[in-house]
Design brief:
The structure holds two protein chains of two kinds. Helix content of chain A is 0%, strand content 52%. Chain A is mainly β. In chain A, the strands form two sheets. In chain A, strands 2, 4, 5, 6, 9, 10 and 11 form a seven-stranded mixed β-sheet that branches. Chain A is globular and about 40 Å long. The N and C termini of chain A lie far apart (37 Å). Chain B starts with a strand and ends with a strand. Chain B is mostly beta strands. In chain B, 0% of the residues lie in helices and 54% in strands. Chain B is globular and about 45 Å long. The model of chain B has no long low-confidence stretch (mean pLDDT 92). Classes of the chains: A mainly beta, B mainly beta. Chain A binds chain B through residues 4, 30-31, 33, 35, 41-45, 48-50, 55-56, 58, 91, 93, 95-108, and chain B through 32, 34, 36, 41-46, 49, 51, 89, 93, 95, 97-107.
Chain lengths: 114, 114
């Protein structure tokens, strides 16, 4: 069964550094999302992306965050200058086109900012 | 804004017994209600969903019910097994397009006692 994959599984970085989290969507999916989950808390929506544009973003997704799909396969989340409070699990999710409702999640990247 | 409340936060049941998790939502425009299971170190996995045009859906040992008037929806797991132990998240989304964000509940940690 096709799966969403994410790399790396764990990223440790120092405060102020830039990080890029990568996601490979299911091959025929066209809608992409990033969510985050701070340890022990609920999963929170960050951003949705379709046709090379942001469709919607949350208050969390400020100017420090950006997303792109540079090569038609990988979908990336960049945090320009990480803060301690960015430490969380980051999940990529994808949906097929048209009237599909279901979002399929990747295994996540654990980001630790020290 | 949109909010999804979930209860209980933890639930322990004897193997073979039933488990019920309840959620309420605030946005009357919500029309799609997925349930996700998250095992340790993994991403959320869609286990069942229900759309606003039906009141109940069943898939083997799992069933979901929806009361749109009261803005309540519930997950029922019958004949629980050890592998059902996980964190379960309810969620809601106003489905305007395939780029619609999912709003998650706070999660229920389900433990199955042997």
């Amino acid at each position: 069964e096709p799966e969403v994959t994410q790399t790396p599984s764990h990223q440790v970085t120092q405060m102020g550094q830039e990080v890029i989290l990568r996601c490979v969507p299911i091959s025929n999916h066209l809608y992409f999302y990033w969510y985050r989950q701070i340890l022990g808390q609920k999963v929170e929506f960050l951003v949705s992306f379709y046709n090379n544009e942001i469709s919607e973003k949350s208050e969390i997704f400020d100017d420090q965050f950006s997303v792109e799909r540079p090569d038609g396969s990988n979908f990336t989340l960049k945090i320009r200058s990480t803060k301690l409070e960015d430490s969380a699990m980051y999940f990529c999710a994808t949906t097929a086109s048209g009237s599909s409702y279901e979002q399929y999640f990747g295994p996540g990247t654990r980001l630790t900012v020290t | 804004g949109e909010n999804v409340e979930q209860h209980p936060s933890t639930l322990s049941v004897q193997e073979g017994d039933s488990a019920v998790i309840k959620c309420t939502y605030s946005d009357s425009a919500s029309n799609y209600f997925p349930w996700y299971k998250q095992e340790l170190g993994k991403g959320p996995q869609l286990i069942i969903d229900i759309r606003s045009n039906v009141g109940e859906k069943k898939d083997q040992r799992i069933a979901v019910t929806l009361n749109k008037t009261a803005k309540h929806f519930s997950l029922h797991i019958t004949e629980t097994q050890p592998e059902d132990s996980a964190v379960y998240f309810c969620a809601a989304t106003p489905f305007y397009s395939s780029a619609s964000k999912i709003i998650f509940g706070s999660g229920t940690r389900l433990s199955i006692r042997p």
